[in-house]
Amino acid sequence: MSDFLAFLAGAPLGTRVVVRTRIEGGYTDALGCLREAPPASVVVETKRGLVTLLLADVVAAKEVPPPPAPRAPRR
Fold first, then answer.
1. Integer angstrom CA distances of residue 23 from 14, 41, 57, 60
2. Contact between 41 and 54 (Cβ < 8 Å)
3. According to the model, what pLDDT value does residue 38 have?
4. How many CB atoms are located within 10 Å of the residue 11 CB?
5. What is the CATH number of the domain that holds 39?
6. Whole-model pTM?
7. Does a structural domain hold residue 72?
8. What is the distance between the alpha carbons of residues 20 and 14, in angstroms, rounded to a whole number?
9. For residue 11, is it left (φ>0), alpha (ψ between -120 and 50) or beta?
10. Are 19 and 69 in contact (CB under 8 A)?
11. How many other CB atoms are found less than 10 A from the CB of residue 34?
12. At a CB cut-off of 8 Å and minimum separation 6, what does 70 contact?
């Protein structure tokens, strides 16, 4: 089993992750909180909503730190 697949299988739900998958013509990333990690796919909650990714298409995954705090408004 690949390191990134082992990470996804063992990561607690709610962990902030980035998952890279193969798409036609290249790759794409999903950044957000891990919501489901069933055997054949993972679900990541991104800013745009829930994204289901097939494990067969995943080429990399890792935990990422929380997003930075919002900046103070300019006066």
1. 25, 15, 8, 13
2. yes
3. 80
4. 17
5. 2.30.30.520
6. 0.88
7. no
8. 18
9. beta
10. no
11. 21
12. none
Structural domain contains residue 29: yes
Q: How far is the C-alpha of 26 from the C-alpha of 37, rounded, in Å?
A: 24
- In a domain, residue 70? The reply is no
Rg (the chain; Cα; Å): 14
* pLDDT tens, residue by residue, 37-68: 888 999 999 999 999 999 999 999 999 999 88
Residue 74 lies in a domain: no
Domain that holds residue 18: 3-63
pLDDT of residue 37: 87
**Banded pLDDT at 75 (limits 50, 70, 90):** confident
Domain count, the chain: 1
By the 8 A CB rule, do 30 and 51 touch? Answer: yes
